[in-house]
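Progress report, Aim 2. The chain analyzed during this reporting quarter is listed below.
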Amino acid sequence: MAKKYIAFFMAIAMLFTCLAGCTASQSDNDNAQEVTEQPTAKITDSTTFKLSYTKGDSLDPFKAKTQNNQVLATLVFESLFDLDESYEPVNNIATGYEFVDGKTLKVDISPNIKFSDGSSLDTSDVAYSFRAAKKSPAYKNSLQYIDSVSEDSGSVIFYLDRENPYAVNLLTFPIASTEDDKEGYPVGSGRYKYETSDGKTVLTANVSDSFDPYITTVNLVNIAAADSIDNAVNIGNISYAFRDLSSSVSKRMSCAKKLVNMNNLVYIGVNSKSGITANEQIRRAISLAADRSTFADSAYSGYATVASSPFNPSGKIAENIKIFSDEADIATAKQAIAQSGEKAKDLKLTILVNKNNNRTAVAALLKSQLEAVGFTVDIETLSAKEYTAKIKAVDFDIYIGEVKLSDDMSLYPFFDEKGGTRYGIDRKNIKCDDIYANYLSGKSDLGSFILSFNEELPFIPLVYKKGMICYSKAMNGDMQGYYGNFFSNIDTWNFIS
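Predicted structure tokens for the chain:
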């Protein structure tokens, strides 16, 4: 009997042991389920990234005069359209556009965009920004042929002075709020905003689902002089700079670099009103003698692209157009001289140039190239003021010029009666200016203009300049910035070693 009791109690004990074991095991499983992996905190940086700015210049994008502050503004303000690297418009604040007629351009505005202060961006802000941009140092030239703007229930309508199917390319001016923020800074809808931190102006990121950068603060360093900017980015005192290579900057830069296409045309201005350059065959001989590849590679150290037509080769308008060779054609140039009827003793030219390292190098190379086909050539190098005065007085044979063309690729600076580079062009006796206007209005095709231009050569395109993005070698990321959109993928840049 005792054995039965002992067996009974042992069975009870074993049962409790099993139950306890099962309970402990279940509890362990429950605890395991409750333990979740904690998300890794995103690494950010608010101290390392630095940009130069000009403290004495305005941060208002419509008042800024310096390239420093104008480049900075592209982080704070968005535009109706961005342009890609082929100068094709991409919707930004705008959702689309249409030409109501040849001189009326209607642009639809996204209704869901907020400024950095939380206020809504509407058509009144776009209209205000256009009117301010039209008077601004940075945008007044490109907007001169857009007369006015009006608002129409979620859209803005731009009225053009003349027909232009590429006018949408000009709508890249910044859109700013009509009201400054409480600290007095202009307000945009861009990726960063102006703020004061420790008594200094900085840019802080407008973090969102679509923009969550490593660089949360852009620190600003007051550096106004161009040479000082070059040195600062070389030694790492600033992290990034855009340089337009206005004076052989490339030779001074030892930082990481990326070439940037620009719409700056370097050309030979020609006096077609008097002298031997009034002869079309002489102008053709000059163009044929010019070795454009040498200008790009030598005078501009590779920071230029050969102009194969009047239009920027980076843009789609210039696709499949090639009327100028990269190299000189000496034999054909000599034939053109022979066909001109000019006597050998009269083949004398003076090249006018201002004191600019790149353009004086072009002038020296061109002198040698023209002499190789039979011209006698002198170079007259003047100060900027003297050079400009002589050009406006049409007191030259030929000159080396540079013009920043607007993003619609307009050639009106040469063909308009008020154009800044019209000097020396005999508009009474050429036809290509009228054919160009007909092309823009749809009355003629591009091919007709190109043929007329190549025959008359009112000016001689040489190269389109390139700029340079310079950045710290400590910075990581695929640098995809380009002219007009310098910080296109800033959210991928970092300093993580």
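The two ends are 80 Å apart (CA to CA). Confidence is low (pLDDT under 50) at residues 1-27. These observations will guide the mutagenesis work planned for the next reporting period.
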